[in-house]
Amino acid sequence: MKTILITGANKGIGFETAKQLAQQNNFVYLGSRDKENGLEAVKKLNEQGITNVEALEIDVSDIASVRQAKRELEGKIDALDILINNAGIAGEQPQDFAGGDIENLRKIFDTNFFGAIQTTQELLPLLRKSPNAHIINVSSEVGSISLRLDAGRNTNRDKYNAYGSSKTALNGFTVMLANELYASGITVNSVTPGYTATDLNQFQGAKTPEEGAKPIVKLAMETDRNITAKFFNDGGEVAW
What we know:
The protein is α/β, with parallel strands linked by helices.
């Protein structure tokens, strides 16, 4: 049994990831910015017979909240095996860099990029106590520079430019942190669930949350310690 924390796990892909990992006999903390939403998510899982879960209040964009969550975890567990930085926001529209609101961009980065960093930094002491720790950053194909090189021929992607750039930055964080932690044996990877129907995109995605969670779950259960500084989707490795 592994001990896992998933941020933004009270709904959508995070909730389904928590469900699937708990069904594989892991103990999962469902991180939620709002405590009541987290408790409601746990109640839903309990009603399905899944009891190896617990809600944890954590707002990744608020360092005081992150530190309080860390203190709560330290009182409950000796080590954290897997941290899944899933919490994220899409931001407001429009998101074009030629004229979009800079404060909207800052807000997106504060959650999607800086939130993941400060959550990871605060929880690293618990991760270092695990013999096989994983850090997984939930990214997106729109954060892949290689896949975005045709953007001039696909202007529909522009609506997610700010969101996509935050995921590009998150991918950079993945690689840099993986290099920093390589000697410690802690693996760090990015994974994209794909275009999944959640409230992040007004439920416009082609995949269900159950389908979107699968590559995250697969990566979380990976045992090959040589897999680090990589970017995956449900079909395999993705180009940066």
